Amino acid sequence: AIGLRVWVLAEGNRTATLDDLSLRSPACTDGGSDTCNKVGIGSFESGLVGWTISGQVQTVASTRHGSAAAQVRGLGAVTSLPFAATAGRRYTGSVDYRNTGGTDWVGFGVHFLDAGGGMIGQTAVPLAVSSDWSRALLDVTAPAGTVAMRAWVYAEGQQLVVADGLRIQEVGCGQTGVD
Fold it and tell me: Which of 10, 15, 121, 138 has the fewest beta carbons under 10 Å from its own?
């Protein structure tokens, strides 16, 4: 058995409020070895192995985590292999990125797949222009019929984006809530 004791102390006439306390398994860390990360390999230390590539994609040494990141250039995409997902469940995602600018669309998203591997929907967020590392967040609920998902980063036109630390997690993985 694992015990937990949390103390919140307010001395004098002060008030302390504690809200949304959660515990995370040590296995859930920021990086490619995260057992909660549905993508599996969320980094690019092994190059582009385990990723589906279309268009102009390569690894570069300019990274947020580790030794390699994916550089996606106009009309290019890096897409994870499909991973198991459950209809009706909520998933959160993140990717660290640098978007050097331009007027064409750059985004991070997920495809929802049915039992035959067909796409039944997608959700995406645009990646804002940022010469320094930024983090994009995604919060989705898998629609009816979803049995798998795949995550992606895409750049149109002359855009160039560097992505690293891509992560999709089912809400609640590795956490024990305390109400």
Answer: 15
